[in-house]
Predict the structure.
Amino acid sequence: MAQEENTATAPAHQVLRWVAGGIAVAMSLYHMYVAAFGPPEAMIFRGTHLLFALTLVFLLFPLRPAATAGRLARAWDFTLLALGWGAVLHIFFTYQDLTNRIIYIDDLTPWNTAFAIIAIVVVLEGTRRVIGLALPLTAMVFMVYAAVFTQVKFPVLLEQLYYSTEGIFGSTLGVSASYVMLFVLFGAFMERSGTGQLFMDFAMSITGHQAGGPGKVAVVSSSLFGTVSGSAVANVMVDGPITIPLMKRTGFRPPFAAAVESVASTGGQLMPPIMGAAAFVMAEFLAVPYAQVALWAAIPALLYYVAVFFAVHFEAKRYRLAGVPREELPRFGHVMLLRGHLFIPILVILVGLFLGYSAPLCALVAALTCLPVALLRASTRGGIGWRSVFGALEEGARNTLAVAMACACAGIVIGCVTITGLGIVFTQVVIALAQNSLVLALVLTAMAGIVLGMGMPTTPAYIVMVSLLVPAIIKLGAVTPAAHMFAFYFAILSAITPPVALAVFAAAGLAKANMWASGFAAMRAAAPAYIVPFMFVYEPALLTIGGQWLTTLHATVSAIVGVILLAGGLFGYLVRPANMLERALLVGAALLLIKPGWITDLAGLGIAGLVIVLQLSTARREAATQVPG
């Protein structure tokens, strides 16, 4: 009987797959139209975005897998889908009444109350299906707090969460609809045009032959792919199958190979011009152009990848790991001749942002140029056709679902925090715990970011931190953009921090390595990156804040030298293998250079110079003892 039922449901499942594909294409086309011609009213635009997202979620993420789902499970999926449609369409059909009523004053009708509850339940369940329980449970805790432990009346809470732009239909969902959708769509078109192969060949041609070449290839290619991905796990799954076997073949230990790939992939969310989704939320919160956020992120991203690159270099030099033979690598000139034109869409975004055009419009134009650019040369023309267009449109919509649902659910958290004043209370608690010390407040915020990121994606983790923790570090003296970047940075680093390190999970599986060994290796490889956020809080010039380019240049150079020395101390190599005393001196010198100020920089350089002299003299003595006679 079971086999007959599965056979009978196979055509129905195929039809649902086609329907979902058509809806995904329609979702992408709608957002492209809006980017070109302008959005409707905020509630209508965000509601339409959520309507598309809910439809795809309940079609693509059923309660049970399609092969084993019974009629009851499928009926529940369609019931939730119908309720979700009802909740959003209720906003559309009563929009005029909603705009005329006095919020928090006029009473809700029974129907209004019912639709508000339905909307909240459907959003929580949809979010659970896409990204797991952590964020919905967090939202439920905040709702219970607001309804039970404060003076906020339940109807007022429902109005906040459903009938205002401070809840589900808030600015975070607006960011998903306006920005994230277009940039994810751009990434899908880039992948279809073969840009991933360009990034890999480009990295192989410039670093593959060096000591630890495959590890450096992972760093360079992942940083490039991160500009169009924004997802650490997706980055690992694209780069890892190529770079991890190469690293193991040239002598890297499996846990370290997994660590390098996961750390390099995680940094992609920091890489301008296209960062992770949380960067667009930051632009919305701070009311600045997205290009400004990308500029703030440029130097921290450079420091992150310098740290990882030299971690790989020192590990390779210490264990004498060779690169890939040159004859097995693509030549740089050949790569650029065959595929270099695929960089054009990224340049379109950079030039557009520089000229002041809106980020969604830049992403739209860049997406539309991807496939025509690929058709320019025979070397990249293969496989490009109408199927590529529809495939990219469908993939772009599917890849947006996790962010869309996370933003809608995070809106519930923000609505509860706003209406209860919990943010102010939390700020006072953090300041009291930190005893008015900025550094202690930063440590508490960093720990909270890593813990939050263990259970939810970067975007909602960042949103919760902004609601509860960032105001405290601003009050204690941090510059506002630096405080937001600090929260963003640590929400990202949770992807490589055990016990729940999703990027490390993915890479360890590819490397067939122990998860815990890979996780600790990742933390060691990224150790300088954990210090970088403290650097730019105390020296905002690293975010290009302050206007003095000489100050920015000095801070950047000293920070780069500092993270290199820290990697050298942690991995036991600089000019040659370092003993324990030299490693301790290198770490001390690094911390002095990382701390802003000319005096500490000179002291750090002096200690680093001493270590280099010691290592060179040791190398000369060893060479003299090896000379015969």
Residues 58 and 79 are 10 Å apart (CA to CA). The two ends are 89 Å apart (CA to CA). The first helix runs from residue 2 to 37.
